[in-house]
Amino acid sequence: MPTKFERLIGDYCLRQGVLIPSGFARLTPSRYAIIRTHLTPPKLIAKTWFKTADVVYYIEHFLLSELGGKLSQSIRILDFQEGVELSYTGMKRLDKIGTFSISDETKND
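The structure assignment produced for this chain is given below.
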């Protein structure tokens, strides 16, 4: 049976036309996810994170070197627990920049 975050992220991606990689859900999905919006179609990064520090580490060690100054236009950082979108602001910080709709009709997890 899919976990709560696997359902939430999967449903969101299907509604938004985001490609879900085959490696998604290999590890238990967690609350923070990153979508690469510069790709066609946009693609979910298979790894998800529980702590913002881990999201920042991934951005700084993998995405920033690849995307550089185009980082903010190339990714969306989503918190599927709170329904907020975050932005990497440098200096090891993520700031809230908006909200998005999440739905979980089966809140039994």
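Interim note for the steering committee: The two ends are 10 Å apart (CA to CA). The chain has three helices and five strands.
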